[in-house]
Amino acid sequence: MLLKASSVSLKLKLPVLMVVLTVAFVITVSFLIYTMAERSIRENVASAQASKAQAGAQALSFSIGAAQRDVVNLAAQPTTFRAINNFERVIGMIEDDDQIGYLKKHFVTENPNTEQRADLVDPGDGSYYSQSHVTYHPTFVQTSELNGYSDIYLISPTGLVLYSIHKQGDFAETITGPVLADTPLSRVAQAALAAEPGAVVVEDFSPYAPAGSNTAFLASPVLSKRGDTVGVIAVRIGTELVQSALTANLADTAHENIFLVSPDGLARSPSVVEGAFEMLTELPDAPHIAAARDQVAGQFEDVVTAAGQRATAVVIPLNLAGFNWSLIMETDSDTAFAMVYRIRWMVLSLIGASFVVSIIVSWAAANRVTRPIHHLRDVTNALANKDYDIDIPGRTRGDEFGDLARSLDTFRDKLTSADEASSREEDSRKQTNLVVDEMSHALSELQEGNLVCEINTAFSPHYEDLRKNYNRSLENLRQSLREVVEAAHHVDRFSQEQRAAANDMAERTESQGSTLEKTASAMQDLTQRLRDTAEKATEVDSTMRVTRREAEQSNEVVRSAVAAMDQIQQASAEISKFINLIDDIAFQTNLLALNAGVEAARAGEAGAGFAVVASEVRNLARRASEAAGEIQALTSASEEHVANGVSMVDRAGDALTSIIQQVTAVSDLISEIAGGVQHQSQGLEDINAAMRELDAVTQQNTAMAEEASASSQLLQSEANTLSQVTSRFQIDAPIDADAPARWEDLSDTQDVQHGQG
Q1: CA pair distance 192, 156, nearest whole angstrom
Q2: Which among 81, 378, 592, 674 is least buried, having the fewest CB atoms inside 10 angstroms?
Q3: What pLDDT was estimated at residue 437?
Q4: How far apart are CA 662 and CA 654, in angstroms?
Q5: Does the pTM exceed 0.70?
């Protein structure tokens, strides 16, 4: 049966309490230390793990990025362009029916270096291909060794593998043939042939049968100087390049594992820890594996690895062009947190030792504490029985018990003066009652409206300021009420005067409003007349503008007629030239007829027929000359008529030009008149609007005057009400009272009464 805490002695409770507190303190401190140490160790482990993983990611990113840049540079080098052209050209120059079989025979089948076919530079067959191979092969081998490539391929636009370093089963095969069809090399080469200049095509790690391993490919198109795609350069990457980049910063590969995971959940690099998993192995569905598949970065504790061990892991998604990977680093939990386990055992040992030590120390301390307490208990009991003469031991001690003894001594002194304080308190209470009675009576009178109810009875010095302040406040209140009454009379008189002025103003404003209304009506009529005049002026202006346009059109017609007359005159001149030509022809014909007649006369009878013809020709020439003369005469008459017509048309054109100028001047004057009338109309509109606004303001003034009259009447009513309210207060009535009594007399009387009582 457990005992209550109040029934247990202090000698037992103190050791128990000290042990409990000590153990609780040690446990709390140990727990905090352990928690802080564990947190620090876990943070350090996570930080170190993240640093190693980040270093591996950076190294891998650098290696893959360098490989991609190197492929682009190789594709852009003239050496690569010349190598593809030479290899493609010299293959066609091989003097063999089976050119591909010839290449495979000398570089693969009969290659003396079975394990390292890349060591064969010149098979010694004397072919042009072998000569080109001697030229370019060392360069590509050196490039592959420097960058850690597994192989380098040169592929023609038709898909033929023109060259490879290691001459494996893919050498001299077409990417669409039975050997390479649907392989990573075929896919990356076809994509590169269709890619843009300077692009890099990537094929992730997958099984590649010709090489007998899991490989990845990088490829880029090779262009000519004209920008045409002449082939593809491809680079094969093995797992060694990736593994060396990932493990560059790992020291304990037995307890740390770093690898790559793709979104399909397959391992894209082999396990660093021996026997865990192989390349392209499907990894277990653990939280960190799922995060890596989803490309989500994070840190994970207490996860299960592919080997079934407990570990802590970090996931870093990689931003590599063409490679959709996530990096995972796993660290064995027992190895990573070994220091945490050692600190845990140290903390438990410390708690056990502190428990034993606290029991021993607390028992000794409790005995030293409880002995003085017993002595002080006896003293306290004596003071409770009003035995103030008892000796209090321990007052000379310098510890808390000495302070307690000195406090009991002071407490005893205070108890002896308690009776004196009680009597003084009774006197103070009586004085306070007197002040309360006087103030209550005065406030009752004040409530009834009596403002002359001063307190003339003197108070004790402690409350005398209260009486004086009350009397001064009462005097100030009376003075304020006198001022309020006087102000009410003034307000009443002022409101009467204001109401009379407001009524007078309302009458004058009403008369002004009537006058303004008549003026506004007259202005409105005048505005309407000007508006009509402006509209008529605008119509006249429009008519004049139409007239001017028609005159201008007539002037254009006259100009056209003048031009036509000029053309007719020119045509007449040309006709005259032709008539003169006809006249000359007739004259020459007449001469010829005369000559023919002379010759016919000389011929005698033989020329008789010819003479007749000559006579007819001469008659014809005469009639042509006569007709030309008549036409000349008509043409001359026509030219005179045309000249007269041109002169008349010119005069008509000048007249029309003058008319147009006059019409234009008249139109401008009418436009100015219309504009002036419109401006006047607008001005009258503005005056009319101002008159309307003035009328509205006048109406508002009338309303305001009426409102002022009503307000004056209301103000007068309020002033009467204020006078009625202030009349209930007694301000100047005399106080019918005896001379004020002195506080000292009242105090003496109370003392006598108190003594009698």
Answers
A1: 11
A2: 378
A3: 78
A4: 12
A5: no
